[in-house]
Prior knowledge:
Elements: H1 3-11, H2 15-37, H3 39-56, H4 66-87, H5 104-117, H6 121-132, H7 137-144, H8 148-168
Helix pairs in contact: 1-2, 2-3, 2-4, 3-4, 4-7, 6-8, 7-8
Amino acid sequence: MTDELLVVRCRLGEREAFAELVRAWHDPVWNYVRRMLGPSRADDVAQEVWVAVVRGLPRLKEPGRFAPWLFTIARRAVADRLREEYARPEIPLEEERASADPVDALVDRADLLAGLAGLPVREREVLVLFYLQDLSLEDCAQVCAVPVGTVKSRLSRARRMLREQLTEEGYR
Length: 172
């Protein structure tokens, strides 16, 4: 069933339709939040996103544009959390460590995610939205509230920064 139909059914008060939306979109939202903030804060912020969705769903003007709207809400929740954290005195954060796993692919993925976490927020955000959430350039632009050209330049800069960071750490 399409997201558009599920949104319309939610507006009609069908709880099962909302449950289907959550089942379909919880993991992508949680993964986006986790990649932006880290795993320790992902659950709380993802929950805040779904509360905002429940409140805002009746006001969604274009039900067919549910995904960009959802990630816009997630982006705002991430930005709010970052603002709160920047306002507090700086406390060293525990770095996310990959567990020792014999499978090289998992190690490479953990290194890539650690490299991603080392990027500035704007660059990390467009990489996550475009490559990991499979949003189009236009949808990324809508979520980030910037022109498509800005998304393209941030993607280019983010790829370059990630490549440099991984090269410094011995990856090709």
